[in-house]
Write a structure and sequence with these properties.
This protein is an all-alpha fold. 69% of the residues lie in helices and 2% in strands. The protein has a two-stranded antiparallel ribbon with strand order 1-2. A hairpin with a 2-residue loop joins strand 1 and strand 2. Helix 12 packs antiparallel against helix 13.
C-alpha cells in the first residue's frame, strides 16, 4: 500500500510557528512588594500528560497578570527623578534580576507566548533606566541585567520557532555584555548565537561563533563549557565526529575541574551544564553524524533520567529521537515518540519542537505504510504548524 498523502500528492510544508495568546495587564501596586523585595507567586503546575485545558490556561494568565503587576510596583517604588536624571534604588536591580530568574524557571510550564510580553516590557524599562542614570557603576549593572533579559527574550523566540528574531536578541545581548565590560558573559551570549546558527543548520557560522566565545575569556567555568559544547554541535553538523567528541570532552572536564564560576546575581550562570545535559548533547552528536543505533539508545537512556524541571526541552528531544528512529527505518517507534513530542509542543507552545516534528512527518511520508494513526498524527502536526 502507498503512504497517505495530501490531496495535492506532496507532503505538507512546515513553515509556521505555534500560536498562543498572552497579554499582560499591569495592575499597579501588589501585596507581595515590601521595601523593594518580593516573593514571586507560585506558577501553575506542569501537567504530566496531555493538553493543559481551559482551567490551566486561566491559571497561567492569572499568574502572568500577578507578576506583571508586581513588576510595575517594583519600578514605581524603585525609581525617583532628580532634574533631568533619575535615581534608581539598587534593590530594584536585584529584584528585577530575581524576577528574570524566576520567569526562566517558570517558562517551561507557562510556555513562551505567555511570558514574552512581560519580558519585553522589562527590557524597555531597563533601556529607559540606562539612558537616564548618571551613575556609571549602576549603568554597568543595568547593562548586564538587560543583556540577561535580552538573552531570555532570544530563548523565548527560539522556543516559538522564530530564529530570526531570536538571533537579533542574542546579538544585542552580546553587545550589551561587551559594553558592560564583562567578556565572560559576552562569550556566553556568542555561544548562544552559535546555538541558533547550528539549529538553523549553518555549521560554519555556528563553529566560528563558538570558537570566538571560548577565546574571549580563558577562565574555566560553565559559561565557557557551554561554548565548547556548541563547538561540538557545530563540528557534528559538519560531520566530524572526532572533533565534536573532543570538544564535548573539554566541556565535560570544565564542569568537573577547578572552576571560576561567576557569582554575579545579575547575569547568567549556565547551571544547566550538568552531566545529564552533556550526555544528551553527546546523543545529539551521534544523531547528527549518522550513528543512528547508538544515538537512539543513548537518547532513550537520557529520557529515562530526564530532569523534570526541563519539561519544555523534553519535547524537542523526543522529536529528535523520533527523527532518528525514522531515519533508522523504525517508523512505529518514531511515530510513538512523535506523538509524545507533539503533546508536549501543544502544551508548551513550542514552535521549535513543531518544526522538528515537521521534518519527522516528511520522512515518514516516504517510509511508512498508510494507517489512520499516522494520518491523524500528520494532520495534527500540519495544523499546528499552519
Amino acid at each position: 500500500m502507498t503512504p497517505v498523502r495530501p490531496a495535492g500528492g506532496n507532503p505538507p510544508r512546515f513553515h509556521g510557528e505555534a500560536d498562543g495568546g498572552g497579554r499582560v495587564y499591569q495592575s499597579g501596586r501588589d501585596q507581595h512588594v515590601t521595601e523593594n523585595h518580593f516573593h514571586l507567586p507560585a506558577p501553575p503546575p506542569t501537567p504530566a500528560t496531555g493538553g493543559m485545558g481551559m482551567g490551566a490556561d486561566t491559571d497561567r494568565r492569572g499568574f502572568i497578570q500577578r507578576v506583571g503587576g508586581l513588576a510595575g510596583a517594583l519600578i514605581t517604588d524603585g525609581v525617583s527623578r532628580s532634574g533631568s536624571q533619575i535615581r534608581i534604588d539598587p534593590a530594584l536591580i536585584e529584584s528585577l534580576a530575581t524576577l528574570r530568574r524566576s520567569l526562566v524557571a517558570s517558562e517551561r510550564s507557562l510556555g513562551p507566548a505567555q511570558v514574552l510580553p512581560l519580558a519585553e516590557q522589562q527590557v524597555a524599562v531597563l533601556t529607559s533606566m540606562r539612558k537616564q542614570t548618571g551613575d556609571r557603576a549602576l549603568g554597568r549593572d543595568i547593562l548586564k541585567l538587560q543583556a540577561a533579559w535580552m538573552d531570555f527574550l532570544g530563548w523565548l523566540w527560539q522556543s516559538r520557532g522564530d530564529h530570526e528574531t531570536a538571533g537579533s536578541y542574542a546579538e544585542k545581548s552580546a553587545m550589551l555584555a561587551t559594553a558592560a565590560g564583562d567578556p565572560e558573559l559576552a562569550g556566553y551570549f556568542h555561544a548562544r548565537r552559535s546555538q541558533l546558527a547550528t539549529d538553523g543548520f549553518d555549521a560554519h557560522v555556528g563553529l566560528g561563533l563558538a570558537e570566538h566565545s571560548v577565546a574571549g575569556d580563558p577562565r574555566p567555568g560553565r559559561l565557557q563549557a557551554f561554548g565548547h559544547q556548541q563547538r561540538a554541535q557545530a563540528w557534528a553538523l559538519l560531520g566530524d565526529a572526532r572533533e565534536a567528541l573532543n570538544a564535548l570532552d573539554m566541556a565535560q572536564e570544565m564542569i568537573h575541574g577547578p572552576m571560576e564560576d561567576r557569582r554575579d546575581p545579575l547575569g547568567v550562570s549556565a547551571s544547566f551544564m550538568t552531566d545529564n545535559y552533556l550526555r544528551a548533547q553527546r546523543a545529539m552528536i551521534l544523531f547528527r553524524v549518522g550513528s543512528l543505533e547508538p544515538a537512539t539508545e543513548e537518547m532513550r537512556s537520557c529520557l529515562e533520567v530526564w530532569d523534570t524541571g526541563f519539561h519544555h526541552e523534553k519535547g524537542l528531544f523526543q522529536a529528535h529521537l523520533a527523527h532518528a528512529y525514522v531515519l533508522a527505518g523504525d517508523c512505529e517507534t518514531s511515530l510513538a515518540y512523535g506523538r509524545e513530542a507533539l503533546g508536549n509542543a501543544l502544551e508548551t507552545g513550542s514552535g521549535r519542537t513543531l518544526r522538528a516534528l515537521g521534518a519527522v512527518v516528511v520522512e515518514l511520508y516516504d517510509k511508512v505504510r498508510w494507517s489512520a494513526e499516522f494520518e491523524a498524527f500528520a494532520r495534527r502536526v500540519e495544523f499546528a504548524c499552519s
